[in-house]
Specification:
By secondary structure, the chain is an alpha/beta fold. The chain contains 9 helices and 9 strands. The strands form 2 sheets. Strands 2-3-1-4-5 form a 5-stranded parallel sheet, sandwiched between helices. A 4-stranded parallel sheet has the order 7-8-6-9, with helices on both faces. Helix 2 links the parallel strand 2 and strand 3. Helix 8 crosses helix 9. The protein is globular and about 60 Å long. The termini are far apart.
Length: 295
């Protein structure tokens, strides 16, 4: 099938069962995308051609391991569509095995690759569920490698929706730089390309008048700006990224996620993410995330 050039924007959502693919798809539906869940890979090219004929501009498709035998077709299909002018963004949602097991246990849903039901013993059910999750990881590995990874392990559905909307709203083929603050005590984001540990910096948490504030508040920013180590850390991260971002862009990277971590994810990491976003926004498309902040 020969497709003509198209102004169609296609978002492909893949990932682990239970990682939030439905939440991401609903977020895109809210922004005006025509969304299709669990499209068989064999139908991808035909479906895109049909939507092109209907003059569609924005389409989102979710695929998962239920179509495992045909998933190897997808990378080649995406490459063909890109050659023919379709603007493609691929998102892969993931979460830790522990998180996925907990979510399935709470909902009492059966994993699509598991042969066990909740009539089985708890021990056998847990083992079967872990085995199914690891098999799914293996089957989806080729799609994961060529997509922007989103770790949904400890973020709320509303945060995931907002993040997906922000990712899709940025312009086409440019490299997008994502700065993310996080708390080490809640784990390092698995979607990070670079991780900087800033726990050694002076901590506003120990200043009573700053404890309940965040790195987005002027008083915290003023306190940190007065700390030479903070200024030096900011300069070092800026220099590192300024040196390597051009090379990453030449390597056709669509997204680069830079995670800044402190103990609680409230002050130092938030402040540095805010500052780095300002520093790089003039040259690069930038997004920011504060994983531990409620709003």
């Amino acid at each position: 099938m020969q497709l003509q050039n198209s102004n169609l924007q296609l978002v492909l959502i893949t990932g682990m069962s239970g990682s939030g693919k439905s939440v991401a798809l609903h977020a895109l539906e809210d922004t005006g995308f025509f969304c299709v869940d669990n499209l068989p890979p064999e139908l991808l090219l035909s479906f895109v051609e049909l939507e092109r004929q209907h003059n569609a501009s924005r389409v989102a498709i979710a695929m998962d391991a239920r179509n495992a035998t045909a998933l190897p077709l997808v990378p080649g299909q995406l490459a063909l569509l890109k050659e023919q002018g379709v603007n493609i963004k691929s998102l892969f949602l993931d979460a830790t095995t522990e998180t996925l097991v907990r979510r399935y246990s709470e909902t009492r849903r059966k994993h699509p690759l598991s042969q066990k039901t909740f009539d089985a013993s708890h021990e056998n059910l847990h083992r079967a569920l872990v085995d199914a999750i690891e098999l799914e990881r293996e089957l989806l590995a080729p799609l994961r490698e060529n997509a922007h990874l989103i770790d949904s392990s400890i973020i709320r559905p509303s945060q995931l929706q907002a993040y997906v909307k922000s990712l899709i709203s940025v312009a086409g083929e440019q490299l997008t730089l994502v700065f993310e603050s996080f708390a080490f005590k809640r784990g390092v984001p698995s979607d990070a390309d670079f991780v900087f540990d800033v726990r050694m910096l002076p901590n506003p948490h120990y200043e009573p008048e700053l404890r309940q504030l965040t790195g987005r508040d002027a008083a915290v920013a003023e306190f940190l700006q007065q700390q030479p180590d903070v200024t030096q850390m900011l300069a070092h991260i800026e220099q590192f990224l300024a040196h390597w971002l051009e090379a990453l862009a030449r390597d056709h990277r669509s997204y680069v996620t830079v995670a800044i971590g402190c103990t609680g994810g409230q002050h130092r990491s938030v402040y540095l993410v805010e500052q780095l976003t300002q520093l790089f926004s003039a040259q690069w498309v930038t997004l920011k995330r504060h994983r531990e902040l409620v709003a």
